[in-house]
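Protocol step 6 of 9: fold each sequence in the batch and record its structure tokens directly after the sequence line. For illustration, a two-sequence batch is reproduced in full.

Sequence one:
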Amino acid sequence: MPSQITVHVAGSERTVEQGTTAGDLFADDREVVVARIGGELRDLTHVLEDGDVVEPVLVTEEDGLAVLRHSCAHVLAQAVQDAFPDAKLGIGPPVRDGFYYDFDVDEPFTPDDLKRLEKSMQRIINSGQTFARREVSDDEARAELASEPYKLELIGLKGRPSDTMPEIEGAAVEVGGAQLTIYDNVDRKGEVVWGDLCRGPHVPTTKLIGNGFKLIRTAAAYWRGSEKNPQLQRIYGTAWPTKEDLKGYLDRLAEAERRDHRKLGAEMDLFSFPEEVGPGLPVFHPKGAILRRTMEDYVWQRHVDSGFSYVTTPHLSKEGLFHTSGHLPYYADGMMPELDDDGQAYRIKAMNCPMHNLIYRSQQRSYRELPLRYFEFGTVYRNEKSGVLQGLTRVRMITQDDSHSYVTKEQAPGEIRHLLDFVLGLLRDFGLDDYYLELSTRDETGDKKDKFIGSDEQWAEATAVLEEVARESGLELVADPGGAAYYGPKISVQARDAIGRTWQMSTIQYDFNQPERFGLEYSAADGTRQQPVMIHSAKFGSIERFIGVLTEHYAGMFPPWLAPVQVLGVPVAEDFDDYLKEVAEQLRAAGIRVELDLSDDRFPKKIRNASKSKVPFILIAGGEDRDAGAVSFRYRDGSQKNGVPVAEAVAEIVQAVRDRVQV
């Protein structure tokens, strides 16, 4: 009689025969693609041991989708090397909503290449190949992959913590562990037809990929993110459990493309990224600057109403300031290179907080002054790699409505509540009213645990305060282990836009480290000198990024109070130009931003152009309107209201702007 073992499956104890695999436990459920065994993701072919705790992972779960997509990336690489035998393999990790794979090929891939590769992938998938895991030594891997220079380079990274190889995005999917493994693609005859260095796991058979995949686009990508290295060709793809899921994603992708702020920014003449200035450094055109100034005026007044004092600080300082703050020891990679002034090193600032600390420290402080709140529109600069820059949503120039509150420990919970109310009110005013909270804490046991400063007690106290306030809000709270800043935990507000995408917006951070590093003190009621707590908060986060998100959220159709042009006047004929000019003057006198179309175009074309302009209110005037002292409204949804007296029209527009209506 074969020996038996005991395993724990989805919370219940089961006795199974020795040699049972994870797949045997879930053979009747095709949605199970891998298993979590002892907390680690494993192939369904993994042989169980006595005492194993086994959980099924469905293809619809985040981890299951990642495995499906990584398996699809392997199929893509196999198809590429079938079609282009000289292609050298880079890395092919799963990413949000899909996957990519990098290749060293003689010529860039074309759209026709992608179509051919998709057909080849479908043949591979339909053939029902299996993914077989094989452990190899370093020398065996080098011998087997001798013709793959990039894989050989990865072998040398084996066992390194994943956060020490950020320059090779996705490297952890191949060599993140202590043991090298190769996954063979095996056909139905049992023959190995292809293989790749990989940690796994993978779906048990290519048939599970089905027809819910598609190759999306190609791009150039430097190996290890450095322009000094070879330029590879990256193919992006996506994979979903079903063809219906794929169609839904492609529809969302098309809608996202229609809303792309980079495209709309050019069409609406809001901003641009001149090559002469440099990547990630936007310039705002007049209309974009109006939008930006409207946002700044709003948040300026909100800060003043909330008890903040406005300050300004330089764009650079001596390097020593950022050693004191901890940015250079812990955040040097994110800062711009040093500038030399006759032997004195300077740094362009990546954060405003060190200089706010100096303002606080410029004189003695009393407990009677606390909370002491500073804010500024501070532009900081981050050394982002060119490959990750994306329009306004990932830039090198970041203008923050940056604030710092200096409080006693006892005041900290109340101040965080105050800031969270501020933030949520701001998001609602800008039409972002679907959100949840994320609590970012330090990495307690992982690779990054040494990248955080402060004692266990300080972190526990700060985290507890943030968590308490977050839970009091009644909002959904999601954990983000390891996502804290080096100096303290934070709450971030994650807002969903009009098509359901999530964006990190405002942040509130509890900092017990910088006050200590800068020697900040206040005189307590008992006469002792005490150290304040510092609360960082950025309501927009980044004005540039916020504008990018809003542009996509509204598809360029900003509500009246934000729209760069709030009213567009269109005369039916030239005879009515002067009448509409008079109407425009009344609107301008009421603080409304107005433009007139006085071009030589015929009226039907003017209306077509006006409809494309995304202006909230189009005012039309012809003979009947002029004779009645009225105008006709045309709204963005195509509806129209005729013969509205001018005074009523002005009042309607002014009220819509004043009330921040979302039309």
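Sequence two, same batch, same settings:
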Amino acid sequence: MELDVVELSRLQFAMTAMYHFLFVPLTLGLSILVAIMETVYVMTNRPIWRQMTKFWGTLFGINFVLGVATGITMEFQFGMNWSYYSHYVGDVFGAPLAVEGLMAFFLEATFVGLFFFGWDKLSKVGHLTVTWLVAIGSNFSALWILIANGWMQNPVGAQFNPLSMRMEMTSFYDVVFNEVAQAKFVHTVSAGYVTAAVFVLGVSAWYLLKDRHTELARRSIAVAASFGLASALSVVVLGDESGYSVTHSQKMKLAAIEAMWETEPAPASFTAFGFPDQEARETHYALHIPYAMGLIGTRSLTDEIPGIAELVEDAETRIRSGIIAYDALKEIRKDPNHAPADATALFEQHGKDLGFAYLLKRYVDDPREATAADIAKAAEDTVPTVWPLFWAFRIMVGLGFAFIGVMAYFFYVASFKKMTFPRPALYLAVIMIPAPWIAAELGWFVAEYGRQPWTVDGVLPTALSVSHLSITQVAMTLAGFIALYSVLFLIEMGLMIKYIRKGPYLDVPEMPAVAGSAPSASRSAPAAGLQPAE
């Protein structure tokens, strides 16, 4: 990778974004799980569920604070490192971010405070309402972020204005209900639910292995397994929907993920295994599943999925069309108030390909001076590096099916085997704790790296989006972020481990008539005087 301002800026944003996303999935999922636990408490009036709500709520709070801190930094980077991007698409991209900040963030942050400090100030139903508003606020916040990101993947509801030299929104409805944004939202949120379920399952399994807080652990496993199984199944279904939307909006990304070098006869096969060779344009030792990719990508047996070679040819055609648009834009800009009619007509016809002409800026200052070789090289630039996408996607999918298996097993044991969990299964649950984070980070890598060389797909190349900074300036801020985030990571892990080791403040025993057995003795504090409410 060439060490320049563009690559350093990409590296910095990737580092901060992927670090921030360590906190997002757990926040999304744990907020729902905590709300479910408190709902059971309000419905049954059993103190064990209040204890569970408070304990898992404490871990949610730690994670929430770190997530907010790292998320704010990301938004500052748009102005610091990506100023031309902010200028070019700010009218569109800024709208969902503003809604997220004004509505979802304030809703979420306000009710988080009430959740922690309102236990003795609000009624049970009032506090439960606050808890659900925290959960709704967390997920609502994710919605607007993913609408903004979805627009970068599929820029609908906007058009380029040659007078302002910016993208301008034409339909807020189209931006909000962009098929890519909606598919990304439900898929990302479901992945967050799986992350929280695996986390609760693993921590609870560790308590059972240590024979601590067993009442809380068993009930937490029951909730996490049922919630996690439903979420893991939905991730697969909604991931399929994401793949279907990519077929329409980002054909090159899909071809790269599948290492589909040439267009296959319909229906295309799915490459389950292989070693992509980008120079030779082939996949060595490929193991194909017939028809699978055609069914996933097109939902039919007759529609083709274009391969990389065909898409490169299409990109070359669009680059030539973009050069016409670029020339017409220059004519319009000479006198914007009295633009020649023929130039305006040409721009209206070819303007949708203007971004492809900007790909030539890597090779020539004026795209109109590009040679056939320059155009061919720019067309090749539309192909992302295939092998990381190929393997990241397959590892992510493999982990997704592993989550289904683990959750199904624990759901079965919790439902039909009286929660008698074998120790090897409990060890497996503990070992699995990092896995959903790995899957989530790989998913974001596929989504963002697969979009290259575009910041906004087909509209604005990444190479043109950066601020006018020196390599030294970007390298210094990158080093600063790495140092700061390393400290924050150590704080996060230290606090989480501390409160997990500490466990709940008191072990609340269940009534024998309810629990089906004599209450266990408290291992962390006496339970005298704490009787379940009538």
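Proceed to step 7 once all outputs are recorded. Observation for sequence two: Confidence is low (pLDDT under 50) at residues 511-534.
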